[in-house]
Design brief:
The chain has 345 residues and is an alpha/beta fold. It has 15 helices and six strands. It has helices spanning 4-7, 12-19, 68-72, 106-114, 130-139, 148-151, 154-166, 179-193, 202-212, 223-231, 235-251, 253-264, 268-279, 283-301, 326-332, and strands spanning 75-82, 87-93, 117-120, 216-219, 311-316, 338-341.
Length: 345
């Protein structure tokens, strides 16, 4: 059971990473002995020694476990609408999951099997190109003379140094990069150590199947656009983002299990409470990271209903809920989405 009073402690950064933006940082350096790599573009490659390979399920006791109820619940985070021509599914994604969260609810796989085309937030193949990795690093370059230390308050910088060291990274490798980049590296590393892997995220789970089956694949925006959302943040907002990330690292480990549970069981009121509370102190960020993007995506999603093939649209789960979520926006435009149930296993 999710305790609503606790949900307020889940930070904005964690919500964005898990259910808002699908933009993990890849790298172009040789892997370490575990097959993991990180390239910050400002010196020697930094290996992440001690992090087991993504292909191996974690043995750590901190890995969130899917409860039996999550596999037998009637509700899912999947919606369905029918037009005269076709069926369009909306699936809310958690971008990082654990091996123990599988198998996913049966209805999600059934929606994938039914769809001839899939729509993701971005072209997930973009993340693996050296050109796009270079683009990310270029955007992360600060104005001349600026440093991470100068961009953060002394207290936050000390805390950032401590947390980076706990994850095996010296703060110096971030010194000549903007603060937002620090958050996009540190939080995924922490998620990895907790057993959450990008490869187990809903997006990649179905993207890899779609590629193997040669299904049509579309995207709603570009990786560059997602990165620009962070790059356009003021230094004050970037400092808040770093602080939120550092707070997340201390407090969300036990609550992440509840977050995933609310998603697996399709508990929309609880998940919505989490999303709205996380953004409440930052209305301008909610506008930029959720509302504006949802409105832009309608230009791609609405025409799908005129096609002669079925589509599965997979976006971060935070984009589906609330008054400005995709479900409400599309229902208001006459597309009647209904939440899909999944039969017990």
């Amino acid at each position: 059971m999710i305790h609503l009073e606790k949900l307020r402690s889940i930070g904005l950064t964690t919500l964005l990473m898990l259910a808002g933006c699908s933009l993990p940082i890849n790298a172009g350096c040789p892997p370490d002995s575990y097959g993991n790599i990180i390239d910050l573009g400002n010196g020697p490659c930094q290996s992440l020694e001690g992090t087991p390979p993504a292909s191996s399920p974690r043995q750590s006791s901190t890995v969130p476990q899917s409860s039996p109820a999550s596999q037998t619940s009637a509700q899912t985070f999947l919606w369905k609408a029918e037009s005269a021509q076709n069926v369009v599914y909306l699936l809310g994604s958690v971008h990082f999951l654990a091996a123990e969260n599988y198998p996913l609810p049966e209805s999600m796989q059934a929606a994938f099997d039914d769809a001839e085309g899939l729509v993701f937030e971005i072209d997930l193949n973009e993340e693996n190109t050296s050109e796009d990795q270079q683009m990310i690093l270029e955007k992360a370059q600060p104005e001349s003379g600026e440093t991470l230390r100068a961009s953060l308050s002394p207290k936050i910088y000390v805390l950032a140094t401590q947390k980076a060291a706990e994850l095996g990274l010296p703060i110096e490798i971030f010194e000549n990069l903007e603060p937002w980049f620090f958050t996009l590296i540190i939080l995924p590393l922490k998620l990895q150590k907790m057993g959450f892997e990008l490869q187990y995220g809903v997006d990649y789970h179905f993207y890899n199947q779609a590629v193997a089956q040669n299904k049509e694949i579309l995207s709603l925006e570009t990786l560059e656009y997602q990165i620009s959302l962070f790059d356009r943040l003021s230094i004050a907002n970037q400092q808040n983002l770093v602080l939120q990330t550092l707070e997340d690292l201390k407090s969300t480990e036990t609550l992440l299990t509840e977050l995933v549970s609310s998603w697996l069981t399709g508990n929309v009121p609880q998940f919505t409470q989490l999303a709205l509370e996380s953004f409440k102190p930052y209305p301008q960020l909610q506008q930029a990271f959720l509302t504006d993007r949802n409105l832009n995506w309608l230009k791609t999603i609405e025409p799908l209903f005129n096609q002669n093939k079925d589509y599965l649209v997979i976006v971060g789960a935070a984009h589906l809920v609330g008054d400005q979520g995709l479900i409400r926006l599309l229902n208001d435009r006459g597309y009647q989405f209904e939440q899909v149930s999944s039969p017990p296993n």
